[in-house]
Design a protein that fits this description.
- The protein is an alpha/beta fold.
- The protein folds into two domains: 102 residues, Rossmann fold; 57 residues, Orthogonal Bundle (Arc Repressor Mutant, subunit A), CATH 1.10.10.
- Helices cover 62% and strands 14% of the residues.
- It contains seven helices and five strands.
- A five-stranded parallel beta sheet has the order 2-1-3-4-5, sandwiched between helices.
- Helix 5 crosses helix 6.
- It is elongated, with a radius of gyration of 25 Å.
């Protein structure tokens, strides 16, 4: 496992490193420079990012939230103090674990595990949502193609679907692909 620790303070980074000492097969990278943070983390290609921000200003917090939106990796963020707005912003930014006043070596491993599990669970939910949206879009496309066939060829709904299915089978394509071709052709011919 590759772990990136982002912390401008070497002493705080050492606390996180200590908490990770029991992990086997683990490469730990410490990033202390805020400038070029996304590029630095991109070069490291970590499996998880642990950010210790101490007591950041609102601007610094927003900067790190922007970084977390881009990374696409589990992120555990440690801060000394927080408010509801910061917590909400961290959730919106995709931070997997937002820990207030909890930086101690013995808590690092459970927080790391939680961040990875929450990230994976959220990633599964996002994938499921994308799949459902894709299926809905395909279904709407098929329905639109059926309506076109019903209007232009006088088919009933079952006949229109049967025609789409038969054409898909004959061409070795998916019904949604054939439906898209029907809709595109209809639009090219001046249909709505």
């Amino acid at each position: 496992m590759r772990i990136a620790i982002v912390d401008e303070s070497a002493s705080r980074a050492a606390v996180i490193r200590e908490g990770l000492a029991t992990l086997e097969d683990c490469e730990i990278f410490v990033v202390t420079e805020r400038r070029g943070l996304v590029a630095s983390i991109g070069e490291i290609a970590p499996d998880i990012v642990l950010m210790d921000l101490g007591n950041p200003s609102r601007d610094v917090l927003e900067e790190y939230f922007a970084v977390s939106r881009v990374l696409g990796r589990p992120i555990a963020m440690f801060v000394d103090e927080s408010d509801e707005e910061s917590i909400a912003a961290s959730v919106d930014a995709g931070v997997s674990s937002y820990v207030v006043d909890g930086l101690s070596a013995h808590r690092i491993r459970p927080i790391l595990d939680l961040a990875v599990r929450r990230f994976n669970a959220f990633a599964r939910l996002e994938a499921d949502l994308a799949e459902a949206k894709g299926k809905l879009a395909e279904r709407e496309l098929v329905d639109k193609a059926k309506r076109i066939l019903m209007d232009s060829r006088g088919f009933s709904e079952p006949q229109a679907y049967s025609e789409l299915r038969k054409t898909a089978m004959n061409q070795g394509k998916r019904i949604a692909d054939i439906a898209e071709a029907v809709v595109t052709a209809h639009q090219l011919m001046g249909g709505k």
